[in-house]
Amino acid sequence: MDSINRQQPEDNRDDLRGADAVGRIRALVKEAETCFFCTAVSVGDSGATRPMSVQEVDDQGHLWFLSASDSHKNREIAEVPSVRLFFQASEHAGFLALTGQAAVSHDRKKIKKLWKPVLKTWFTEGEDDPRITVIRVAPSGGYYWDNKHGAAIAGVKMLIGAAIGKTLDDSIEGRVAP
Questions:
Q1: Any idea which of 9-13, 84-88, 132-136 has the lowest mean pLDDT?
Q2: Which of 27, 28, 52, 105 could cross-link to 37 by cystine, CB 3.0-4.6 Å?
Q3: What is the pTM of this model?
Q4: Separation in Å, CA 129 to CA 25, 124, 136
Q5: Strand (E) positions, the chain?
Q6: What are the tens digits of pLDDT across the range 145-165?
Q7: Neighbour tally for 11: CB within 10 Å
Q8: How far is CA 163 from CA 10, 57, 106, in A?
Q9: Which whole-number Å values give the CA distances from 19 to 16, 26, 37, 142, in the listed order?
Q10: 127 vs 9 pLDDT, higher one
Protein backbone atom coordinates (compact mmCIF):
# COMPACT_ATOMS: atom_id res chain seq x y z
CA MET A 1 0.00 0.00 0.00
CA ASP A 2 1.36 3.41 -0.93
CA SER A 3 1.79 6.14 1.63
CA ILE A 4 -0.09 9.40 1.12
CA ASN A 5 3.34 11.06 1.09
CA ARG A 6 4.12 9.28 -2.21
CA GLN A 7 1.12 10.94 -3.88
CA GLN A 8 2.44 14.46 -3.65
CA PRO A 9 5.09 16.31 -5.61
CA GLU A 10 7.14 17.54 -2.64
CA ASP A 11 9.07 16.01 0.23
CA ASN A 12 7.27 16.20 3.54
CA ARG A 13 9.82 14.47 5.75
CA ASP A 14 12.65 16.19 7.61
CA ASP A 15 14.39 14.39 10.48
CA LEU A 16 16.18 16.87 12.75
CA ARG A 17 19.22 16.45 15.00
CA GLY A 18 21.15 18.64 17.41
CA ALA A 19 20.54 22.38 17.19
CA ASP A 20 17.91 21.98 14.45
CA ALA A 21 15.94 19.56 16.65
CA VAL A 22 16.23 21.88 19.67
CA GLY A 23 15.03 24.81 17.53
CA ARG A 24 11.97 22.88 16.34
CA ILE A 25 11.20 21.69 19.89
CA ARG A 26 11.58 25.22 21.26
CA ALA A 27 9.30 26.71 18.57
CA LEU A 28 6.54 24.11 18.99
CA VAL A 29 6.67 24.24 22.79
CA LYS A 30 6.51 28.06 22.75
CA GLU A 31 3.38 27.88 20.60
CA ALA A 32 1.70 25.13 22.63
CA GLU A 33 2.85 26.31 26.09
CA THR A 34 1.37 23.22 27.78
CA CYS A 35 1.58 19.50 27.27
CA PHE A 36 0.27 16.22 28.54
CA PHE A 37 3.01 15.03 30.89
CA CYS A 38 2.94 11.22 31.22
CA THR A 39 4.83 9.35 33.93
CA ALA A 40 5.38 5.63 34.58
CA VAL A 41 5.69 5.00 30.82
CA SER A 42 8.47 2.40 30.94
CA VAL A 43 6.52 -0.05 33.08
CA GLY A 44 4.13 -0.87 30.26
CA ASP A 45 0.95 0.87 31.34
CA SER A 46 -0.46 4.14 30.09
CA GLY A 47 1.05 5.94 33.06
CA ALA A 48 -0.39 8.91 34.85
CA THR A 49 -1.15 11.80 32.53
CA ARG A 50 -1.76 15.41 33.45
CA PRO A 51 -1.50 18.82 31.77
CA MET A 52 1.64 20.77 32.63
CA SER A 53 2.98 24.16 31.57
CA VAL A 54 6.52 24.28 30.27
CA GLN A 55 8.45 27.09 31.95
CA GLU A 56 11.54 26.95 29.72
CA VAL A 57 13.32 25.04 26.96
CA ASP A 58 17.07 25.52 27.37
CA ASP A 59 19.84 25.42 24.75
CA GLN A 60 20.31 21.67 25.21
CA GLY A 61 16.61 21.05 24.55
CA HIS A 62 15.82 20.25 28.19
CA LEU A 63 12.29 21.17 29.22
CA TRP A 64 11.74 22.69 32.67
CA PHE A 65 8.60 22.48 34.81
CA LEU A 66 7.65 23.45 38.36
CA SER A 67 5.88 20.89 40.50
CA ALA A 68 4.82 20.26 44.09
CA SER A 69 7.12 18.05 46.14
CA ASP A 70 4.12 16.09 47.44
CA SER A 71 2.60 15.41 43.99
CA HIS A 72 1.95 11.95 42.54
CA LYS A 73 4.05 13.01 39.56
CA ASN A 74 7.16 13.60 41.67
CA ARG A 75 6.75 10.21 43.38
CA GLU A 76 6.28 8.48 40.01
CA ILE A 77 9.39 10.17 38.57
CA ALA A 78 11.39 9.04 41.62
CA GLU A 79 10.32 5.43 40.92
CA VAL A 80 10.56 5.49 37.10
CA PRO A 81 12.14 8.60 35.52
CA SER A 82 11.00 7.78 31.94
CA VAL A 83 8.36 10.25 30.71
CA ARG A 84 6.45 11.16 27.57
CA LEU A 85 5.28 14.65 26.65
CA PHE A 86 2.57 15.41 24.08
CA PHE A 87 2.08 18.92 22.66
CA GLN A 88 -0.53 20.44 20.34
CA ALA A 89 0.05 24.04 19.31
CA SER A 90 -3.09 24.51 17.20
CA GLU A 91 -6.06 22.63 15.82
CA HIS A 92 -4.30 21.42 12.65
CA ALA A 93 -0.56 21.90 13.21
CA GLY A 94 2.25 22.04 15.72
CA PHE A 95 2.17 18.50 17.13
CA LEU A 96 5.11 17.12 19.08
CA ALA A 97 5.65 13.90 21.02
CA LEU A 98 8.81 13.53 23.13
CA THR A 99 10.25 10.76 25.25
CA GLY A 100 12.89 11.41 27.85
CA GLN A 101 14.20 11.14 31.37
CA ALA A 102 12.92 13.38 34.14
CA ALA A 103 14.79 14.51 37.25
CA VAL A 104 13.39 16.40 40.23
CA SER A 105 15.39 18.91 42.26
CA HIS A 106 14.93 21.72 44.79
CA ASP A 107 17.26 24.14 42.96
CA ARG A 108 16.13 27.48 44.46
CA LYS A 109 18.06 29.49 41.87
CA LYS A 110 16.26 27.72 39.01
CA ILE A 111 12.89 28.07 40.77
CA LYS A 112 13.47 31.81 41.10
CA LYS A 113 14.38 32.02 37.40
CA LEU A 114 11.25 30.13 36.31
CA TRP A 115 8.82 31.76 38.75
CA LYS A 116 5.75 33.60 37.39
CA PRO A 117 3.11 35.24 39.62
CA VAL A 118 0.30 33.04 38.23
CA LEU A 119 2.05 30.02 39.79
CA LYS A 120 0.88 31.27 43.17
CA THR A 121 -2.37 29.48 42.30
CA TRP A 122 -0.59 26.19 43.09
CA PHE A 123 2.17 27.47 45.36
CA THR A 124 0.28 29.72 47.76
CA GLU A 125 3.38 30.87 49.62
CA GLY A 126 4.85 32.32 46.43
CA GLU A 127 8.25 31.60 44.97
CA ASP A 128 9.60 30.74 48.43
CA ASP A 129 6.97 28.01 48.96
CA PRO A 130 8.93 25.03 50.36
CA ARG A 131 6.83 22.59 48.26
CA ILE A 132 8.13 23.87 44.90
CA THR A 133 10.40 21.54 42.99
CA VAL A 134 11.92 21.75 39.52
CA ILE A 135 11.50 18.98 36.98
CA ARG A 136 14.02 18.79 34.15
CA VAL A 137 13.11 16.56 31.23
CA ALA A 138 16.02 15.59 29.00
CA PRO A 139 14.44 14.38 25.74
CA SER A 140 15.99 11.32 24.14
CA GLY A 141 13.92 11.67 20.99
CA GLY A 142 10.54 12.32 19.54
CA TYR A 143 8.45 13.07 16.49
CA TYR A 144 6.83 16.26 15.16
CA TRP A 145 4.10 17.12 12.64
CA ASP A 146 3.67 20.71 11.47
CA ASN A 147 2.98 22.95 8.47
CA LYS A 148 5.87 24.18 6.35
CA HIS A 149 4.43 27.60 5.58
CA GLY A 150 1.76 28.25 8.20
CA ALA A 151 -1.97 27.63 8.41
CA ALA A 152 -3.03 30.02 5.62
CA ILE A 153 -0.79 28.46 2.95
CA ALA A 154 -1.64 24.95 4.17
CA GLY A 155 -5.35 25.75 3.82
CA VAL A 156 -4.94 27.16 0.31
CA LYS A 157 -2.90 24.12 -0.80
CA MET A 158 -5.57 21.78 0.57
CA LEU A 159 -8.34 23.64 -1.28
CA ILE A 160 -6.40 23.66 -4.57
CA GLY A 161 -5.51 19.99 -4.14
CA ALA A 162 -9.16 19.09 -3.53
CA ALA A 163 -10.24 21.10 -6.59
CA ILE A 164 -7.71 19.46 -8.94
CA GLY A 165 -7.79 15.99 -7.34
CA LYS A 166 -4.15 15.97 -6.28
CA THR A 167 -2.55 15.74 -2.84
CA LEU A 168 -0.99 19.13 -2.10
CA ASP A 169 -0.27 18.73 1.58
CA ASP A 170 1.85 21.46 3.22
CA SER A 171 2.73 19.29 6.21
CA ILE A 172 6.21 18.49 7.42
CA GLU A 173 7.07 15.72 9.85
CA GLY A 174 10.06 13.88 11.20
CA ARG A 175 12.08 12.64 14.10
CA VAL A 176 13.74 15.00 16.56
CA ALA A 177 16.93 13.99 18.36
CA PRO A 178 18.39 16.80 20.49
A1: 9-13
A2: 52
A3: 0.83
A4: 30, 7, 19
A5: 16-17, 34-38, 49-53, 56-57, 63-68, 82-88, 95-105, 132-147, 171-177
A6: 987 655 555 555 555 555 666
A7: 8
A8: 18, 41, 57
A9: 8, 10, 23, 14
A10: 127
Residue 34 carries which side chain, given as an amino acid letter? T
- Which burial class, exposed, middle or buried, applies to 143 when counting CB atoms under 10 A from its CB (0-12, 13-18, 19+)? middle
> How do 49-53 and 56-57 pair as beta strands?
unpaired
CA distances from 148 to 61, 71, 155, 168 (A): 21, 39, 12, 12
11-177 has CATH 1.10.150.20 classification:
no
CA–CA distance, 108 with 105 (Å, rounded to integer): 9
Which tens digit of pLDDT belongs to each residue from 98-120?
Answer: 999 999 999 999 999 999 999 99
- List, for residues 72-89, the tens digit of each pLDDT value: 899 999 999 999 999 999
| pLDDT on residue 134 | 98
d(CA 175, CA 2): 21
Q: Where are the domains of the chain?
A: 11-177
